Each structure stands twice: as C-alpha cells, then as structure tokens.
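agent: user wants the full assembly modeled, not chains individually. Plan: 1) parse entity lines 2) check alphabet per entity 3) run joint structure prediction 4) return tokens. Steps 1-2 passed, two entities, 851 residues total. Proceeding.
--- entities ---
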Amino acid sequence: MIRPLIVIRHVPQIDFMRWHLFGFAFSILLGVVSIGLFLTIGLNYGIDFKGGTLIEAKTQGPADLAAMRAKLDALHIGEASLQGFGAPDEVLIRLPEQPGGDAGQMKAVELARQTLGEGIVYRRVEVVGPSVGAELVRAGALATVLALVAILVYIWFRFEWQFGVGATISTIHDVVTTIGLFAIFRLEFNLTTLAAILTVAGYSINDTVVIYDRVREAMRKYRTMPMYELINLALNETLSRTILTVSTVALAVLSLLFFGGEVLKGFSIAMLWGIVIGTYSSLFIAAPIIHYIQPNRRAITREPAGGDKEPIPPPSPPNRPTGARS
Amino acid sequence: MLYFAQWKVLLICGICALGVLFSLPNLFTPAQLSWLPSSLPHRQVNLGLDLRGGSYLLLEVDVAAAQTEQLNSIVDNVRDALRTAKIGYTDLNVQNNAIVFKISDPARIEDARAALSKIDQSLTVDIAPDGSGKMQFTAQATEARRSQAVEQSIEIIRRRIDETGTKEPTIQQQGQDRIIVELPGIDDPERVKALLGKTAKLTFQLVDTTASVDDARHGKMPPGDEVLPAEDRAARSGQPPFYLVKRRVMVGGDTLVDAQATFQNNEPVVSFRFDSAGAKRFGDATRDNVGKPFAIVLDNKVISAPVIKEPILGGSGIISGSFTVQSASDLALLLRAGALPAPITILEERTVGPDLGADSIHAGAVASIVGVVLVVVFMFLFYGLFGLFADIALMFNLCLMLGALSLLGATLTLPGIAGIALTMGMAVDANVLIYERIREEMRSGRTMLSSLEAGFTRAFGTILDSHVTTLVAGILLYWLGSGPVKGFAVTLSIGVLTSLFSAILVTRLEIVSWLRRWKPREIPL
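--- prediction returned ---
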C-alpha cells in the first residue's frame, strides 16, 4: 500500500492566542502604513487606470535607450519613460496621457512609431484614453467593494454575525495590505493586479471559513471550555490543513511568478502576498477577534453538531511522534 | 460509504469521459483535426488576442455630433417655414442639441408654433411668451437616432475592415454608443486605425471665385459660403491652404456606387462612378458651371479643386490630388464602404504582436505544467495513495475545464492561463480538507469506513463555503473586466465549479472502487 512519505501525525500545541495582541498591533501598524502610503505617495497606476500609452518594443541588437529617449523627447509628447524589459533588446516605453482627449493619445502613438523608425518590432502597444481610464477606476473600486460585501453577506448568512465581523476585518486587512505592498514597492497597479486582489479577497476567506467552522464545532462539543483555549484548539486542529492548502496554491503561484513571463509578474506577486497575508490574518486576526466578540454559545450549542449522532470522544493527547513512517 | 448508486457511477464516469472527449481536440493542430471523423468534437479553445496576436480597439460613436449635424440640416427648413409664414425671427442657430431662435413679434408665437410643428414629427417645439423658442428631438427620436447611428457605424466599419482583407474580425456594440473591434493577426493597426478614424464624408462643392479667401477669413464671409482648409498632403504640394466654397453641396458621396484606385499620367488617382440620380445632378451642375473650379471635399478638407472643362455627363469621374498608391487605394476603399453617420473616436487600443503572443503561450504553458507537476508531487508526498487519487481527479478536472472552455467557445487569455494554474492549486484544497478530516476522525478512534464517511460529509460544508466565496469574486471580475481579465474570470469560475465536482465526487468514487476491489483493512493516511 502506498503510504504518504511525509506525515504530520500529531496535533500541535501552539498557544496562538498568546501572540494575538502582537498580531493585532502588527496588523494595525501594517494597515495604517498601507493606508498612509496609499493616501500620500499613492499607487503606481498602470495605463489601465491612468490613461496613456505603453509600448513594448524589440530592437535589432541591444537597445540604445538614450538615443530612443532623445528621439522621443524631441517630439514634445511629455516625459517618456523607457526601461529595459527582460532581454537586452527589449524596451518598455511609457508615454504619459496626452492633452486633447482620446484622439490626442492616438496621435502621440502614431508620432512615436514614426519617429522610432524602421527595424523595431512592436510586441505590444496599449493605449488607454482618459475616458476609459476613469471608467476603469470607477468599475475597479466598485467591483472591489461589491466583492467584499458579497463575500461577507455570504459569511453572515452561513455563520453568526460575530464571525461575519471577524471575516470582514481580516479580509479588509488582506486587501488593504496588498495595496500597501504595491504602494511601497512602486509595483505597477493595473487591471490584472486588481483581478489578483479580488481573487485574494475570495481566496483568503477560505482559511478563515475553515477555522470558524472548527471554532463553531468545538463550541458545540466542549460546552464549558473557555473561549481562549477553544480558539487555540481550533487553530491547532486545522493547522496542518491550513499549511497544506496554502502550500499547494503557493506552488501554483510560484510557478506563475517564475515561468509565467513579465506580463503576469504583478498578478503573481499580488496573489502570493495575498495568500501569505491571508493565512496570517486567519490565524492571528480573524480567530482572536472571536475571543472579543463572542457568539452566543447557547444559541450555537442548540444546533445539531454537523448531523453527527454519536458522542465524540475528547481529542486524544497529542503526544505521538512526528515524522515519516515507512 | 461503500454504497454508490449505479446511476451516479455512470453519471460521474460519463461526465469525465465527456470532459476528456471535448478537451482532446486541443491537442491537435487544425490540420490534424480535419482528419478526425466528423462525429468527434472539433472545437478548440479560442485564443484571445493577447495569445494569438492582434488588435483590440474600443471606439466611441460621437452621437451628439451626428445629432448636431441633423439639426443643422433642419435649420434651413425652419428658416423657410418662418419666411413662408412671414414671421419675423432673430438668432436662429443650433445650441446644445437644440435649434434656438427668437420670434420678434410675441403676437405671432402661435402661428410660429403651428408652422414649425409641421417640419418634423420627431421635433418638439417650445416657445416661451417672450418669443424665445427651442426645437429638440423627442427622447424617443434621440434614442432611435442614436441606435441607428451606432448600427450604421458598425455596418460601415465592417465593410471597411473587410476591404482591408483582415480575417475573422469581431465587431460588436458595447453599451450605448461604443463599438469593440477585434482584429486577430494584423501587423499594422495604424492603417486600420487611420481608416476607422475617418468619417469619409465626400462632397462636391463649387468654389466661390467672386470673393477673396482672405477677406472671408477675416469676417467678410459672403452669405452661403464657407472657408475650408486644404487637406494636409495637398497643402504641402503648393496648393492654397484655404478655399472659399459654396455651402450648397452639388453632389454628395452617398450617391457613389463604385470607387477604384487607378493611374492617370502615371499619378495615382481615384476613379468613381455615380448612381443615376447622382450622375444627373453632377451632369447638371457641371453643365451650368463650365470654366469654374469645384472643390472635392473629404471630411471638410479640400482634396483638390479642378476646373470644369466640359460637362461631365457620363456619371463617372476622377479625383486627382497628391496621392500615393496607398492613400489612393485607402480613399477608394473608404468611398466604396461609405461614410460614417457620425465621427468616431478611438478610446482604447491594445495590440499584441504575434511573437509576444507565442511567447506568452509558451510561458503560460510552462508555468501551468510546472505548477501542476509540483502540486501532483506534493499531494503524493503528503497523502500517498490518496494523494494519487486526488491527482487523478485533478487530471480529470483539467480535462473538464478545457472541455468546458472549448464547448462554451470561451476565450482563453494569458490571465486565463494563470486562472487555470491557480485553480489547479486550489482544486486540491478540497482533497486536503477531506483527507485531514479523515485523519482526525481516525485519530479520534472511529472505524475506517466511518472515518471516510465522516471525512467526506463533514468537510463538504467547508468546501462549499470556500468555493462560493471564490466564485463570487470570479463573477464580479467577469462583470467588471474587459478582454484579458474577463478570460481570467471565466477560467477561475469554471475551474471552481469543475473542481467541486472532481475533488468531491470523482475522488470519492475512486476511493469507493478501491475499497471494493482491494478490501483493505486500514487507510493509508
């Protein structure tokens, strides 16, 4: 019979709750810094939101950035930004939004292409006019808020409202700190990044749901256990599951980050951070919050425990050895 | 746990088989596909423009401009109607989508209202007691005109693009007044953009030789005249930069039935032919004005202004100007396709060259394969035989996803590939939840079968919760997103649904079959 090579055999006995105040302090700091950065230096918006032009060009031989910059500057179409991109013969050119509305943008691209001349392969050209940019900002903000609201309504519907509050706070925490990450490292924030953030919002709630499920179940099983220990128990019981599920998704995202090419880089970074911070916030934010706003235990214990009729014995002492078994 | 209704087994196997069958065409090239018997599915996943290369253009029809133009043409009727009824008026012009005027004698407001109401049923006439009046299209008429303008624009754009020989273009309306144009595989979007950006309204107007252009430009405009600039190219070749022409249009481009680029004295020119009505009007106009110049005006710019040497009665003619071969054939194309009912602005362009597309496919495929392999190995390391069960279910999941994408004709984009890789990682989440639960139940001293049973049933609620939240994000993304992001939303949402099926039902069927076949005494977890 094929047995697993690696087995986490015992339930750990980590006192997560002991660290929860550090967790709160750290997260509040992270959140405040993120919001502060967002409000002061803001995000490095890509052309999806800001409008403007992005050209990915491949030159013959190594790209002479200075010469290309000089040519573009002579056109007086605003400050062009050029940077190497992947290979030495690849250049990413960004032109700022042009005056003259939507038609102005197209004119500038045409000019730039004429000036840079022959011998350049245009791998990618993206032009977003001011009206579309403004709409995408609106739609993006709306979608983020709606996604949060929809997910939370679902949680409130499935759990008691106290769990809903906890899930709300930890999900907002994950989204806010992901935005903070993009602000501090000046990573380009575009539509694909936004897609990653919404996915993070949908995914990071998974761990929280699993842990809350377990907390609720434990509340029914051990009616007199203090909340502090009960939360610790739930976190420890679900820890191996939490680590394993995060690992499989992280593996998929890491392979996207390393092999998926430049276009998916921002997406992968946002996803990776979101997965990590989402796990952290489930353990150190979402779960401890339940300690402070305790759901009504009597109401919960009245419900049947998962349709289970047999009495469940208390958890066996977790002293068995860890490690591989042949 | 052991009991699995026969029909359920058949259903699960059937769905998996269909998934494999519908995903298979993606392994072949189109040429190979044509060898397969026609009873097998042939649909492949549609590749988005970011993977196959091509241009995406978002256009906006300037509906307000079209309406202003229509109002301008009605102003003449208003003038005639008021004159015929001998009603004095001042300040007649078009402002803010309305014709405005002022009736000099308030006593005649009712007469004016009666006269003006007859002009067009779709216009409302409001005249205040002080005599200031306003004529507007009714909301219904505005709406009808808007949708008509957009529909016509789509038709004309389709004709223009077809003329350029682009294969499989997609042209569709988006929202109220926008048009999405997708052009797979084109390498020079600038030419198409130039073609789409032109209204291509062609008119023939007489040049007014009785007054000087300079006087007219400085305030002494003869009545019924207008000053038009020469087209850029023409201006460069030594023609005057401005022309004074009569507003009255001799013949419009709408009466053209054909236009071709050709050569005359080794110069590229455009030859054209009128329909019978146009030919008659053109013949009459040229007969009456022999020896005078007339302007060939395209989009309010003068291409050239030849002198009429003799009446042109045959209904065909030639437009000469400083054309290149390309610009002559472009003009001929525009004239054949017809004028747009309203100006068009390009709001957004996304072009991906074919080699970047190929690179993206490669990168996406490598990333997905590496991701899947890592996940498969990981599951095997941590769950042994049950990990293999999960891996087999994962393969079926992949087939189901590709099959569903092919069957729905959904478009696969680079973020869409990312969505596939991501759902592969998320799909085994459900397996992890179930297996961890089984372990726990075993630890708490349950029997093998009851642990398995409890593992599946207890984990189900949690799995459902986590899938629903991801699905919510996916649906919102689909609704918000455009192009590539939509592709991500599609694969994410489909992947969530198929993984729910594969991770729970397929894995369960595998485990039950294993139990029945091998009758093991313990679970290798």
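agent: reporting back. DSSP finds ten helices and six strands in chain A. Chain A has a mean pLDDT of 84.
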